[in-house]
Fold these 3 entries.
Entry 1:
Amino acid sequence: MTQAELTDLDRRVLDRIQTSFPVTSRPFAALAKDFGVAEADVIASVRGLKSSGVIRRIGAIFDSHRLGYKSTLCAIAVPEERIEEVAALISEFPNVTHNYEREDRYNVWFTLIAHSPARVQAILDEIAERTGIDDILDLPAIRLFKIKVDFDFSGERGERVEAPPTTKPAETEAVELSREEKALARLLQADLHVTERPFLELAKTLAECGYDVDEAWAIQCTREWVEARVIRRFGAAIRHHRTGYSANAMGVWHASEERVEEVGRIMASFPEASHVYQRPSAPTWPANLYTMIHGRSREDVVDVAERIREATGLEAPRLLYSVREFKKTSMKYFAEGDG
């Protein structure tokens, strides 16, 4: 995939909106004020970034556990000649949001989200039955140290940052949402309109569906969800390959139980590591810590992994590089037939 040409404003916009899109009546005007440019310039930049494929969408990434759903990372060991066939079958499930080929014996990795552990298991059982492959890993998160996809487009950031608070998904309390709130959540999972007042557009859509809401309600509700971490991130999803970040690997590590918390927080302090989790080990898979590492080359990824190894004192990880992306989408929460 060819790298997109980015202007200075494009880079500044991307640095901001990938993690903290302003939840306000005129978000692009708020950005423009910070950048010292016109609102129209920011809107033109975002529209250009979307049309060139750099931005997949702008919207909410919800915490599935806060909405009463269960999520897990899975991997299946597929014979080389059957990878495309099996990956296509897995991608058919609407509960599968991400599906990748990675360099390992466990070569197809996918994220699965459903209403209950029983539904997760039922889907895995169906995959095993339909593929004839029962060598499947089910790796739900035990501790979540970090989820923050935050590429450095300006080159102005430091090497280490403060690690966010650790959470345990199994202990997360789900929120109760009204009909209106569920309807708003469905819209926020989609792609926000790039207009002067995108939250007004959301409110109009809800009003047309019979909900008695307005722009102020949509903004307030979204802000409350962001502050309460019901929305993990409200911002732009980036196609990193289009911006020069052409290499990424899932680093799988092993730490003793008494060091997991300490080591996980160290890993989370590296900005190049976007996802840091503790997950259960298995007889065929001894790893218990995971870091998604991004770089402009494999050499960059190896360098970051080595710096993490030095900082933690762990043995070198297995680096499972992404080979192919079969599916990457957002879960459609509160949709018909998603359970």
Note: The chain has a mean pLDDT of 91.
Entry 2:
Amino acid sequence: MKPVTITEAFDFLDAWNKILGFSTPQHHKQIMQFLIEIFNNEPHRGLLNAFRHSGKSTVVGIFAACVLYHNPQTRILILSAETNLASRMVAHIKNILENHPFCEDILPDVKKEWGTHKITIKRPIGIREPSVICQGVSGNITGMRSDLIICDDVEVPNTCNTAQKRNNLRERLRELDFILSPHGTMIYIGTPHTKNTIYQTD
């Protein structure tokens, strides 16, 4: 993957907010900078915990669209506790791609894959997987290959309210290493829902 500079990411973020009639909050720039640093640098693993309604998912969607703009060959998997949660992120990314002034040239001429659960932009031929696809954490991910995996709210009350559920979730998430491409990026975003959160790093 070609690195995305902080300046390029901020330009993309500011241009999107300008369309919406907003200025960019400082903490959104801090979130974007964190995401770009994870994307650009080894080991390409990151955890973004932030308070509810901080806009973390909003910025992550803009980040994903920015990565696609600079690297159209990127394959992105959005994984959430349930497929309908993940599909909200796909819809967010799709909306950005359709309306961001930078992205006009990567919109497909024929939108064969431009739906609720997967989208494919204009990119080099020969890539089998969609540009963005979503899945619930209990769904079938066998055989997938991804360059960027975004685990968006995989920990929710229904997946973490018992020790067994947390163990099952951790075991399931270990499978992601087998579908991530070499030098691929994996980012977790969410808010802890239990004192024994899976987001603990110690």
Note: Residues 6 and 21 are 22 Å apart (CA to CA).
Entry 3:
Amino acid sequence: MNETNGPETNAVLLMGYGSPNGAADLPEYLAEVLHGRPPSSEMIAEYVRRYDLIGGSPQNRILASLRTKLERRVGRERPGTRVFLGVKHGHPALRDVIPEAAKAGIRHLTAVPLSPYASTWISEPYQEGVADGIRASASPIDVDVRLDWHLDPNWIAYWNRTIRAELAHSTTAEAPVLLSAHSLPQRMRDLGDPYPEILQATSAAIARAAGLARWSFTFQSAGNTTEAWLGPDITDVMLDWKSRGAPAPVIASFGFVFDHLEVLYDLDVVVREFAEQHGIEYHRVPMPNDADEVVEALAHRVAPDPSVQ
């Protein structure tokens, strides 16, 4: 970021996935996720059921808290720096937030997504949203998208701290830890997406930091499609550990930053039910959400130079 322009023309853009605020938002939200294709009534009903089971998504509340905390944190070094929040799907949309920033006099945004992983699958929709926002702006604005914070020491430190805490209270002295992340269609890997390698590097760093002797990397939340998705799936790994005499693994869903449907439903409902059906105890490490470690990792990623700590 060019500090000579002053904080009034430079700002930060925090980018999230987005979530419906309630059932009334679901048709429009799902249509956007489906690239304009209207969702079926069956799909809408199914997602209403899922959100009802988890008591609604806390995502928008968490994103708002992260925005506030990051603005406060960045302001310690650069007083007056604003942090905008924009999402890929839903509101406030990136295509609307960037023009609003430009209208407010911002000429440069340093943008960071709320996913640490520089996967094409993850990053391209953010890049598209940014491009839409720039095109919609009435005055010039440039956006520097900062990807790839999966090995930030603060990110690793969060999982180290919470995994150790969960293991200290585990019913099994040497419970294995299952480090899980959202699966990816095999075709994306075949096209060269580095996502699996990035996840492997991150899980290995977490395991080293936490001193884990018994752990596995797993995928979760594979799509319900006919095409192949990356594995191993978390349920298969749970069964494998049970066959080796470890029926109480600890799950750390490090592929995500905060609680949302893929954690609160895919894990806490679907995987929990699977575990109970197979005599496996269900334990999950809390998600980072707006933890201090996440705020620090984000602050480091949007810092104008390495001297800003």
Note: The chain is about 45% helix and 15% strand.
